[in-house]
Design brief:
single chain, alpha+beta, 20% helix
Length: 115
């Protein structure tokens, strides 16, 4: 059995995190290496390795995660100015933790194209 990911360890409260939102389906916390003044990660409690590994039955959860991102964006004062939501998928997509997560970035001008 593989070792738990850092996100699983955060969910299990083995590693502290600055939690900004939580419910029975997900947890949102500040990124320890922020790429913008606001950089929050939203992770499902269900261990889904990546967006590519999500199944048909995960549709409601995926929608909930997006709803939570919107809610946290408003809570963080980004509702008017705007924000970016990123889901990295796979190594070439920049995913470094094998647990689905959404990045909420805002608080500055986010140029395009990214990275």
């Amino acid at each position: 059995m593989p070792a738990p990911t850092i996100f699983k360890r955060i969910l299990d409260r083995e590693i502290p995190a600055q939690v900004v939102y939580e419910d029975d389906q997900c947890l949102a916390f500040r990124d320890v290496r922020p790429q913008a003044p606001v950089h929050v990660l939203v992770i499902p409690r269900k261990e889904i390795p990546s967006l590519a590994a999500a199944e048909e039955g995960d549709s409601a959860l995926l929608g909930h995660l997006l709803s939570v991102v919107r809610q946290v964006a408003v809570q963080e004062g980004l509702g008017e100015s705007g924000y970016r939501v990123i889901i990295n998928c796979g190594r070439d997509g920049g995913q470094t933790v094998d647990h689905l997560h959404l990045h909420l970035l805002g608080g500055r001008d986010l140029s395009w194209p990214p990275g």
